[in-house]
Amino acid sequence: MPSKLSTYRAKRDFEKTQEPSGTAKVRAADYPRFVIQKHDASRLHYDLRLEHDGVFKSWAVTKGPSLNPKDKRLAVEVEDHPLDYGDFEGTIPAGEYGGGTVMLWDRGFWVPEGDEDINAALEKGELKFVLAGEKLKGRFVLVRMKGDKFGGKRNNWLLIKHKDDWATGDGEAILKKDKSVASGRTMAQIASGKGKAPTPFMLATRKAFKPDAVWSTNVKKDDSPAGRPAKRKVSSANKRAVH
Ligand code: MN
Which residues contact 32 (CB under 8 A, 6 or more apart)? Predict the structure, then answer.
């Protein structure tokens, strides 16, 4: 396992949260993948995750993405996430790190623009890329802000749409498409553990798909091991229902 995930793991207690620990087998893909997870934590945000070097480079976009090139959206760089996180939809228990409901708001593939090395672009603080998602499409850029404005911290970036056929003046209209691309559910349905289970995107096979995180979206208040939902076997019969 890449040590890149040590921060991710240190922040979480996998006895309490249903989030993946990064051990599930992820299928190969022809292009790097991206996901955006709408996360109703203490403050609502949209987590943009770009697959790179075996992990998801991650940014919390505080107001969500905009399709208006005039909008500059604060994107706070956070710890690398495991690739199996890209199939996670459910509720992180209150009191745990990132407690709140998570929706798979968008997903698809991404490529850097041009042939610049991705690590060099991230180091430099300017990554131009193209998204081919179900909701977001076209050219974007992530630009790291100058550190002095934030007390020397170097984790504040801006997410900006570049002009192309998908850019629009009504940049926030896209946020009204407010259902999961993986399950069709609303935040309220996910929070209540109702509706369809998400279809996997990252994980190799149904067998390798660890569904606990999604079957158990209706996390009980008592998050002691005894209070957690029992593991259940996945069959085609119950894969549609989330309890
Ligand atoms: Mn988040």
Answer: 50, 51, 52, 109, 110, 111
220 catalytic? Reply is: yes
State how far the Cα of 240 lies from the Cα of 243, in Å rounded to an integer.
10
Q: What is the pLDDT of residue 10?
A: 94
Distance 161 CA to ligand 1 centre (A): 21
Give the pLDDT confidence of 27-44 residue by residue, as tens digits: 988 899 999 999 999 999
Q: From CA 80, how far away is CA 52, in angstroms rounded? A: 10
Q: Catalytic one among 210, 220, 221, 231?
A: 220
Q: Cα of 47 to ligand 1 centre, how many Å?
A: 5
Q: How far apart are CA 162 and CA 156, in angstroms?
A: 19
